[in-house]
Amino acid sequence: MNYLLLICIDGPTTPEMGAAMGGHTQAWVEEMNGRGVRLLGKQLDEPTSAKTVRVRGGETLVSDGPFADTKEYIGGLDVIECENLDEAIDVAAKHPVSWFHKIEVRPFFDDNERPGSFAPEPIPADAAGSMRYMLMMCLDGIPETPEVEEGVLRDGNAWRERVEARGAYVYGHALQHADTATTVRVRDRETLLTDGPFTETKEFLGGFALLNCETLQEAVELAAEHPLARFHMVEVRPFWEG
Predict the structure, then answer these.
(1) Measured distance CA(203)–CA(51) in Å, rounded
(2) Rounded CA separation 168/130 (Å)
(3) pLDDT tens digits, residue range 198-231?
């Protein structure tokens, strides 16, 4: 079973917290890579770098900032492969971020596809597609008919085929409903679990796609072409390449 770990920052990270997480995060990555549990992962840039894209009446509307207007934000992601939710929770609880912030664990909609290579090293600045972006498909509770949802699914598959043909598509997947999420914190060595996503808003993450694009504008344009932008919204955020 594949799960997405959303690294959720819910407040300031002090120098002391950063020092405490420090090398432990790299140790976690090395352990999970060695176990064959971690399939891909990357830190995202700050939420101030995000663009949220909607398409209404054929017009592309772009706003600054992440999809949910809360103090919490997604700081990174890891895709893991575990036997069950209990193992996924154990993996999340070992991540140093869970000591101070929280991690959302969400199963994939299905497991028919394994992610390909997503090397953590920065892409050379002179390489084609020199920046990686994450598109977060953000659903905001708008009910749609089965016919509309079927059309969105069909158009979504066509969107992926077009982006793959351009060589910009890296990986993506739909997630199960936010009701299936488990949020993990570790405080005083005790693992604390909460049902539901990391932030209590009507908006929730419904899926994601990783892209290689030359510019943010190209990533925004591809987000605007995604059918979910016509009904919900798509957050575009670059990965941290520092």
Answers:
(1) 16
(2) 10
(3) 887 778 899 999 999 999 999 999 999 999 999 9
**Structure-block tokens of residue 100:** 């101070």
pLDDT of residue 146: 84
Q: Cα separation of 158 and 36, whole Å?
A: 32
The distance in angstroms from the start CA to the end CA of the chain is 32
Structure tokens at 73: 């934000």
Tokens standing for 201? 């808003």
Token pair, residue 148, equals: 């509309």
116-123, Cβ contacts within 8 angstroms, sequence gap of 24 or more: 116/170, 116/171, 118/40, 118/41, 118/42, 118/170, 118/171, 118/210, 120/41, 120/42, 122/241, 123/212, 123/241
Torsion angle of C-alpha atoms 18, 201, 57, 64, degrees rounded to 10: -30
